[in-house]
Known about the structure:
The protein is α/β, with parallel strands linked by helices. The chain is built from 16 helices and 13 strands. The chain folds into 2 domains: about 5-185 and about 360-379, Rossmann fold (3-Layer(aba) Sandwich), CATH 3.40.50; about 195-355, Glycogen Phosphorylase B (Rossmann fold, 3-Layer(aba) Sandwich), CATH 3.40.50.2000. Strands 3-2-1-4-5-6-7 form a 7-stranded parallel sheet, with helices on both faces.
Amino acid sequence: MTKTATTDIESGKSRIDILLPSKERFSLANSGAISGVVRDLVTASRTPDRLRVVGVAVEKPFAGVKFCGLRPRHGWLLGTNIGLASAYLHLIREGGKPDMVEVHSRCHVARYLKVKRPDLNVALYLHNDPRDMRGAKTPAERRSLLKAMSAVICVSDYIKECFLDAVGATEAESSKVQTARNGAVRLHTKQTVKQKMVLIAGRMVPEKGILECAQALSQVLKDRQDWRVVIAGAKRFENASPGSYEADVAQALAPLGERAEMTGFIPIEQVRDLQAQAAIIACPSIWHDPMPKAVLEALAAGSALLTTRRGGIPEAAEGRAHIIDDTSMSAFSAALEKLVSNDEYRNQLQTLAWNDFPFTADAMAKAADAIRDTVISRA
């Protein structure tokens, strides 16, 4: 990298557009997981002025972040993701191309942009297993994508391994696939006083393991009148009527009566307050979760974390949490029994979580910034 290029990058003269999936709503009211990560990536960046977030238009986007809201073009024909990408291409035809386009979690969109505009410097930012994504399901598709992309940024080493699985990439090609591990913002300067509360915060979908954990909680806390349960979240990151899965969870918690509360979707600030209060936070994923922010936020809050050995979770939780390999209701019951009944063990995990927390939003943004700098300097 030349001295001039370094100066331009660090001074923010370079321009980077971050393109969101069409389903994301970049607002405090209804932000999804990816929007939350992107907001932290921008606000924690050392050069936030060079970053512009592009997504579907919202009434009140996150404050303090440059945001461009678009309407997907011909979404009824192209699909909303390609429609949004088409609108983006129209935008930069008029306003000029950026030094880099960072496409979040949509492999086929990254490919589309590169095909339509080969001159664009396109990077793919993966939040989930690409082997389940349109445009990257096969090794051949991922190999082709790797050749076309300037970089592939992954939220965990697990996702990096998923992308490279059976691709047969050369060492030089593999070096384009990098990890910027998800991070979380620690809101308190000292550990908060914990209440006898077990919190589960996340989307109400079967793969998150909330039903199995709720069944275990009902069993373990039945005769422990001083403990309560709060489950915060809904099927989607928005206000909506409860579905059948939520009803099953509610039925499982029914024996606890008023000591169990299901809040439904609530603003992120209220979730943070609950995390600060909870003595135990459960993140009971039964699928290979890439790097859930709920895990990182539990550790950031200094709570005793109960979670599973799935996906990228152990990259953050190993040595800092109670991790189970079996995701059955009986396994959750045994883990919760230990966490609830053993004060010394629970307090030990809280102390570990608080004192050993390298997974900050600053660390995440620093890693992402470094990858972007390399991409731009190569161009």
